[in-house]
Design a protein that fits this description.
By secondary structure, the protein is mainly α. It has helices at about 1-30, 35-60, 70-95, 100-115, 120-125, 130-145, 155-175, 180-200. The protein starts with a helix and ends in a 5-residue tail after the last helix.
Length: about 210
């Protein structure tokens, strides 16, 4: 059983790093600006360095259960990954005029995979992991569908989507675990909506 668990963990964490790398590589092909490309590569290197460093500390220097710090990092890095992946989907949809239904199905599957990365044991959510992933995937697929009508460039829509994902994710964690105080949730929503407002005000630049 231990070997099976170890293999599952290896696959689990390896997939996360591969998703980051491949999404960055794909998004790199869409970008034209040299400095954007450079920033994307540096972001990828930083994300992977921190991720592997956390894994090294846990499994080689301090052999304990996955630390809160590792999961906090994964939660933050996942927002970058959500942005990368979503921007790619918007890019493919805009540049290659892919079938909206096929794109939506593939996007739903990708969201279901990305929603797998959560600290289930620590958070003790009063909802099964499958139901959580299903709800997140369904709602985010609808958000994705709604954002496809925007005329802005793909990475702008990726930023908007990531903010919506963050808000909804925090709301679900709060609702099913009461992990956060109401004031925290209100602040998160207020700040996120303010950022969204600024983005839409400056949307003409994109």
């Amino acid at each position: 059983m231990d070997k099976v668990k170890d293999k599952k963990k290896t696959f689990y964490f390896s997939l996360f790093s591969l998703l980051i790398s491949y999404s960055v590589l794909t998004l790199f092909l869409f970008l034209e600006n040299f400095y954007f490309k450079l920033g994307l590569v540096l972001t990828n290197l930083v994300l992977l360095f921190i991720f592997f460093n956390e894994l090294f500390i846990i499994y080689f220097k301090n052999i304990i259960k996955e630390s809160e710090r590792l999961w906090l990092y994964i939660k933050q890095a996942k927002l970058f990954l959500i942005f990368f992946v979503t921007s790619i989907f918007f890019g493919f949809r805009d540049f290659f005029n892919l079938s909206p239904y096929l794109t939506l199905v593939i996007f739903f599957i990708m969201m279901f995979i990305l929603s797998w990365y959560h600290n289930w044991q620590s958070w003790s959510l009063k909802i099964s992991a499958f139901n959580y992933r299903l709800i997140m995937s369904l709602v985010m697929a609808q958000v994705f569908w709604g954002l496809t009508i925007l005329p802005q460039v793909y990475f702008f829509k990726g930023i908007i989507f990531t903010i919506f994902y963050f808000i909804f994710d925090e709301l679900i964690i709060w609702h099913f675990s009461k992990r956060y105080q109401v004031k925290y949730i209100k602040n998160i929503i207020a700040i996120s909506l303010f950022i969204l407002l600024l983005l839409f005000i400056t949307a003409q630049w994109f």
